[in-house]
Specification:
Elements lengths: L10 H4 L3 H20 L4 H32 L8 H5 L1 H23 L5 H32 L8 H24 L6 H43 L3 H25 L12 E2 L2 E2 L5
Antiparallel strand pairs: 1-2
Helix pairs in contact: 3-5, 3-9, 5-6, 5-8, 5-9, 6-7, 7-8, 8-9
């Protein structure tokens, strides 16, 4: 239970004195800070941990089913064969945009007892690794199209895919420059933080929608009749989509519920001012 500083009883009389008003506000602020430091209760924490573990299962199932789909119906992976080269694209995109991006968003809440600087480095590193993965995934699909004499960037899937990839890369680089040491001034950090959070979550959900478009597009091009007939290749890809949506829903809910939000640790504070949170 939170313990708050006792406030003077005769508040009306005290507020007539400027010094007393300042002291009263200080006590109120101190109480607010102590309340902010209180972490979520054990039951709420258990709920979050359960949801997080389920999200891990759904995310990993999306990846595993994609690998099975690629090997069972599209010949597996390889660089010499353009068809096998393309198969890197769906696997890497679902790893980067769905699984790793979702975990980077939740890292502050899942590792809530770790110091803030460490969490910022993990968060930033996951995004940096993702930029490399996405870059290779884009190379794989563009090189496949070029080798097969197929036009590039003509579908809504490709338009959104390239736009999301470019924006994601720019946001990752910009966020590193602003939020990591030495970074930008506190005023610029506070100003850009809401945009950073909104942009990250928006890109996450938009990328999941684009992934689903890509799976559907591939099925229509390659297995249109089998897909319409409900054969196993279609069942595989539909389950990939279901688990991807479940994963995205769980990530979204864990970000939406503010009771799951990480509270600042004592070492996260400089003097009496809390460090801005990105979780």
């Amino acid at each position: 239970m939170a313990h708050f500083p006792s406030l003077p009883r005769n508040r009306k009389k005290i507020t007539d004195d400027p010094k007393s008003r300042d002291e009263l506000q200080r006590l109120i602020n101190e109480g607010d800070e102590r309340m902010d430091m209180e972490d979520i209760g054990p039951q709420k924490l258990k709920t979050f941990q359960t949801l997080f573990m389920v999200s891990q299962v759904t995310g990993l199932l999306s990846i595993i089913l994609t690998v099975i789909w690629v090997y069972k119906f599209f010949g597996g992976l390889g660089l010499s064969d353009p068809d096998k080269e393309f198969n890197f694209h769906p696997i890497l995109m679902i790893v980067a945009f769905l699984y790793m991006n979702g975990n980077s968003i939740l890292i502050y809440r899942y590792m809530r007892k770790k110091p803030k600087p460490l969490l910022k480095w993990i968060h930033s590193s996951l995004h940096g690794i993702n930029v490399l993965i996405i870059g290779f995934a884009l190379f794989a699909v563009i090189d496949y199209h070029n080798r097969k004499k197929i036009p590039n960037f003509y579908s809504i899937h490709s338009w959104l895919g390239i736009a999301i990839s470019v924006i994601y890369g720019l946001q990752s680089l910009g966020s590193f420059a602003i939020f990591m040491k030495p970074g930008a001034s506190d005023s610029i950090r506070k100003m850009t933080l809401p945009l950073h959070v909104f942009g990250g979550i928006s890109l996450f959900f938009l990328s999941v929608a684009t992934i689903l478009m890509g799976f559907t597009e591939k099925m229509i091009f390659k297995y249109k009749k089998e897909y319409a007939a409900g054969e196993s290749v279609g069942i595989y890809v539909n389950f990939i989509g279901i688990f991807a949506v479940l994963h995205a829903f769980l990530v979204g809910y864990m970000m939406y519920d503010q009771e799951f939000k990480r509270r600042p640790l004592p070492e996260d504070r400089v003097g009496s001012q809390p460090i801005a949170m990105t979780d």
